[in-house]
């Protein structure tokens, strides 16, 4: 009987520790004092993991597609295929860069710095993170950086 009660208590403790799964609407309605609480971090961790998984699936599909040797004798068809391969590789290159940002964001979730501006330390904000989960700068800091780049170049 005591063992059964201990098991039930352990299950209840596990359920109590599990953060509620939030929706985008829940995030937008949340008070500022809840910023980057456990449930919000779990939401963004899941979103970033989903992005990472999609990028990796795309890379696998591209690898398979490129290994399929389509033999064509028509120069126009060959040029079309090469252009398609070039576009696909360019897309995968952009996704490779995004993957690095996703991995960095996941590390930030683990170390507690996710959701805060790298330059100012201020909160980035839920709406911006929903639009761009890999954002590392607040909107103001990003705009400032873009103005400087526009004035002085890269």
The CATH superfamily of the largest domain turns out to be: DksA, coiled-coil domain
List the total number of helices: 6
CATH class of the largest domain: Mainly Alpha
Largest sheet: none
Task: Indicate the topology.
Blueprint lengths: L1 H16 L6 H6 L8 H30 L7 H37 L14 H6 L7 H14 L2
Keywords summarizing the entry:
single chain, mainly alpha, Four Helix Bundle (Hemerythrin (Met), subunit A), 71% helix
Overview of this protein structure:
With 154 residues, the chain is mainly alpha-helical. The chain has two domains: 35-112, DksA, coiled-coil domain (Four Helix Bundle (Hemerythrin (Met), subunit A)), CATH 1.20.120; 115-154, no CATH class. It contains six helices and no strands. It has helices spanning 2-17, 24-29, 38-67, 75-111, 126-131, 139-152. Helix 3 runs antiparallel to helix 4 (75-111). The radius of gyration is 22 Å and the shape is elongated.
In short:
The chain has 154 residues and is mostly helical. It is built from six helices and no strands.
């Amino acid at each position: 009987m005591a063992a059964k009660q201990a098991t039930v208590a352990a299950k209840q403790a596990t359920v109590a520790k599990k953060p509620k799964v939030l929706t985008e609407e829940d995030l937008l309605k949340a008070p500022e004092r809840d910023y980057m609480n456990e449930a919000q971090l779990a939401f963004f961790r899941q979103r970033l993991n989903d992005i990472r998984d999609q990028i990796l699936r795309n890379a696998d599909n591209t690898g398979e597609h490129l290994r399929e040797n389509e033999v064509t004798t028509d120069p126009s068809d060959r040029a079309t295929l090469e252009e398609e391969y070039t576009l696909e590789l360019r897309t995968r290159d952009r996704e490779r860069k995004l993957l690095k940002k996703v991995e960095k964001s996941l590390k930030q979730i683990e170390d507690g710095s996710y959701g805060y501006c790298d330059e100012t330390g201020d909160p980035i904000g839920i709406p911006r993170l929903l639009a761009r989960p890999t954002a590392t700068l607040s909107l103001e800091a990003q705009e400032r950086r873009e103005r400087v780049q526009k004035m002085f170049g890269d």
